[in-house]
Amino acid sequence: MAIYENASEITVKMMNLSDASARTAASKSHSDEDGTTVPGGKLLRHVAVSFCLLCVLQVALNISLRLALCIEENYKTLTEERDELKRKLSNFAHYSNQGWVYFSSSFYYISSIKETWQDSRDDCVRRGADLMIINSEEEQEFTRKYRQIMWIGLTDRETEEVWKWVDGTLLTTSFWHSGEPNNYEGTNEDCVAVNYHDYKNSWNDLECVIKNFWICEKKMTL
Ligand code: BGC
Ligand code: CA
After folding, report:
1. Is 195 in the pocket of ligand 1 (CB under 6 A)?
2. Residue 13 has pLDDT above 50, yes or no
3. 108 close to 129: Cβ distance less than 8 angstroms
4. Relative to the CA of 189, which ligand 1 atom is closest?
5. Measured between alpha carbons, how far is residue 110 from residues 98, 101, 132 in Å?
6. DSSP 3-state assignment of 199?
7. Which of 4, 112, 131, 178 has CB 3.0 to 4.6 Å from 153, enough for a Cys bridge?
8. How much distance in Å is there from the Cα of 16 to the middle of ligand 2?
9. 105: left (phi over 0), alpha (psi -120 to 50) or beta
10. Are 205 and 179 contacting, i.e. CB atoms less than 8 angstroms apart?
């Protein structure tokens, strides 16, 4: 053990000691002047690298989650579309097998017996359809090919002279035969049939209780 002569010698010794401990502390967290890495610097570098890795992992996780969500959504949409297509295909098969004719985004059924306008309509509804609505020249031409007097889904039985289709829409484009509609000789002709096949304008109003063939329409697109 050292024995110190006086107080000033002790003070000098203490100053030397504190200098040494300060240098040691500094060397724990910094590099030496010649660039050699000391243990404190390594720790800092490890922390930085780990943080970066964590960030990369987080980004990868986010991308994976987003991808997984996307795949799930696409799968759902595809499944729904597949089911819808299946349903439509089986509908197409059903109406084709029942003798319906496909034309311009609709199936059409022409009856083989005659009925009143209301009974005709009821039959179409039972078949998942309704009496035909004509809203284009192509549809009008289509009806003429059958050369039959057939009920279509047009009537003014709610309000006289207000012609309405069975879907509730008002008549806009019409194909009345010349002189029609006429409530012929004071009769109550509230229902319409395609009648004069030789003419582009073939419609005639007739009494709804008369029995005619009829034509049903079922709209269908793939
Ligand atoms: C008339 C039509 C009428 C029909 C009734 C025809 O002679 O031209 O307007 O609806 O007779 O049967
Ligand atoms: Ca008439």
Report:
1. no
2. no
3. no
4. 10
5. 11, 9, 10
6. coil
7. 131
8. 127
9. left
10. no
- Cβ count within 10 A of residue 158: 10
Domains in the chain, please, with CATH? 102-219 (3.10.100.10)
Atom from ligand 1 closest to the CA of residue 206: 10
The neighbouring-strand residues paired with 106 are 103, 219
78 CA to centre of ligand 2 in angstroms: 52
Q: What is the pLDDT of residues 148-184, one digit of tens each?
A: 999 999 999 999 999 999 999 999 999 999 999 999 9
* Closest protein CA for atom 2 of ligand 1: 184
pLDDT digits (tens, 9 = 90+) for 45-76: 999 999 999 999 999 999 999 999 999 999 99
Q: Which residue has the tokens 């795949």?
A: 71
With contact defined as beta carbons under 8 Å apart, do 189 and 205 qualify? yes
Distance in Å, CA 184 to ligand 1 centroid: 6
Q: Supply 212's token pair.
A: 């005619």
Measured in angstroms, how far is the CA atom of residue 185 from the centroid of ligand 1? 9
* Residues composing the chain: 222
Verify whether ligand 1 is closer than 6 Å to residue 124 (CB atom).
Answer: no
Compute, in angstroms, the gap from residue 180 CA to the centroid of ligand 2: 5
Q: Whose CA is nearest to atom 1 of ligand 1?
A: 184
Ligand 1 nearest-atom number relative to CA 181: 9
Give the Å distances, CA to CA, from 137 to 25, 41, 69, 130, 141. Answer: 98, 87, 49, 20, 6
